[in-house]
Specification:
Blueprint: E1 7-16, H1 20-29, H2 34-37, E2 42-49, E3 58-65, E4 68-80, E5 85-93, E6 99-110, E7 117-127, H3 136-153
Antiparallel strand pairs: 1-7, 2-3, 3-4, 4-5, 5-6, 6-7
């Protein structure tokens, strides 16, 4: 990324009770089940091209951000099963009205205490112009979705 004031990077870490394996598996192979964990945030995830969980596949998320229904068509750019990470590149949707590029990476690492995992989001973006705010609300939404997933995955 260039050093222009239009480019930026946001990061956030969070703890969840689900294992890194369970969390990574749901987000990668069963993202269409994410709405079961947080229907107030995610309405659906549909497969547009490829297969669930494969690099190069294209999925479309329907979600709520700041009280408005939004969509994001994402390319699964890379998957690292060993490090439990997934990188998404937004191709189309509401985010592209304000950003020239938007890449989000999620990684789940087993907690040091052996219970649950630590999730870490990194968003790298380039705004279309100076008037666009950094995507802090999007980062908060992603963390909230993941925390809801952690609760859902550990319910008896």
């Amino acid at each position: 990324m260039s050093s222009s004031s239009l480019t930026g990077k946001l990061e956030a870490s969070f703890d969840i009770n689900a294992s890194a394996e369970m969390f990574h598996d749901m987000l990668l192979n069963r993202p269409h089940h994410v709405s079961n964990a947080c229907a107030d945030k995610v309405q659906a995830c549909d497969l547009h091209e490829g297969d669930w969980g494969n690099e190069g596949s294209i999925i479309c998320w329907s979600y709520f951000l700041e009280g408005k229904a939004k969509i994001a068509k994402d390319l699964i750019e890379s998957v690292d099963p060993k490090n439990k990470s997934i990188t998404y590149r937004v191709l189309e949707g509401d985010l592209m009205e304000e950003y020239k590029s938007f890449v989000a990476k999620i990684q789940a690492t087993p907690s040091a205490n052996g219970e649950g995992c630590v999730g870490h989001w990194v968003i790298e973006y380039e705004k279309l112009n100076e008037d666009v705010a950094p995507p802090e609300t999007m980062l908060e939404l992603l963390v909230g979705i993941c925390k809801d997933m952690g609760t859902h995955l550990t319910q008896p």
